[in-house]
Amino acid sequence: MLGEFEYLLLTAARRLGEDAYGAAIRQEIEVVTGQRCSIGALYTTLDRLEVKGFIKTWMGDPTPQRGGRAKRMVRVTADGVHAAGDFYGAVTRVSQGVSWAPSRGKIR
Amino acid sequence: MMNRIFWGLVDISSRMLDPEEREVVRGDLAESGETGSHALSGVLGLVVRRQAALWTDWRPWLALVGLVVPLGMLLSIVSKSTADGSAVYIWMYANNWDWDFVRNAGFRYELAHCIPIVFMPYLMLVCWSWTCGFVLGSVLRRVIRLNSVLFCLMLLFGALLGAPRYFEYYWQYLHRAFSFPALPVQNDPVFALTFYRVMLPLIVQAFLVVIPSVSGMRQGIKAAWFRPLPRAVMWTMAIAAIATMVIQNRIWLFPGLHFHTPIQRASQIYLLEFVACWPAGYFVTSAFRRHWSRKIASV
Questions:
Q1: Interface predicted TM-score (ipTM) of this complex, two decimals
Q2: Virtual torsion, Cα A95, A99, A102, A105, nearest 10 deg
Q3: Can you give the pLDDT at residue A4?
Q4: Model-level pTM?
């Protein structure tokens, strides 16, 4: 089963699609959660997800706004999509009926 | 100003990352417009995580216990005994110098005789230190950074706390418990001086042990890309050099057996001492290789 940060990362990468790379994923996570995402946590988690086969990474082209440095591009694999779906399902099921979860049909 | 200092530190600390990852991380930091302090904490966090991840394997721990600690301790003992040995001669001449002595032919003869006695052990110490560094660099390539720090800490520990005193404590225990003969009090006027007791061992360790060891580590990392035959030759030389160090300094390892016994200067020992100077041969060969490859490239 995924960890919560792994899930955040997979979701951010999936949402970004073709534009998913280190800095963009980090920014996406910071905007969504409102908390800082450290580079250390980001890249070690990317490595872990790649080892598990949930993402695939490769070196992208350098861009001028990065000082001519390359990006580490990320793509979520089918296994990654499946694992993220399982995690989401588990969180949804376990949250049913608790006070902070939205009731069926309306969001508080 | 502070921001520039932080970015300078980011540059230095990011060198501990793999080249590809360094490129990506520096690019991310440039793109996201981080301040220097945030960039530094981010890079340091990643470096710490990467180093820590390497230590989740059992091999670095085995190397630490099997190589870094024993070699560090051994070198620190040898360095201390070398510094103490030379201190007596240096004190004899430097602290009692009189220009009138120079007119005496006997004095000049003795002085010329003493110079190799002082400097040959220094040369051997440099070679042993370089060899130990080379072995560590070759074996611990991926975890060499943290291990080099631990190695230096071992040396410092030996110099400040342990090495010179283990043997004395052990012998004093034997003297009290089993009536072994007391240690002779020797060279008190020399070691009553702080310079010879504290400073000289530290100077010897810094210049003749730490610097050559670090240089050896750098060369050891490069040696992984050598062909099998030169690598095998280098390893043989390194093992022979470390064996020489252990044999030559056995009085410290087995105090009860060899104390007061002069080291036997058998011809094999001379041969091993010669082999122990292999770092000189390594540097000469490397210089020739560089020279020839430059020459070939220019043709």
A1: 0.84
A2: 100
A3: 93
A4: 0.71
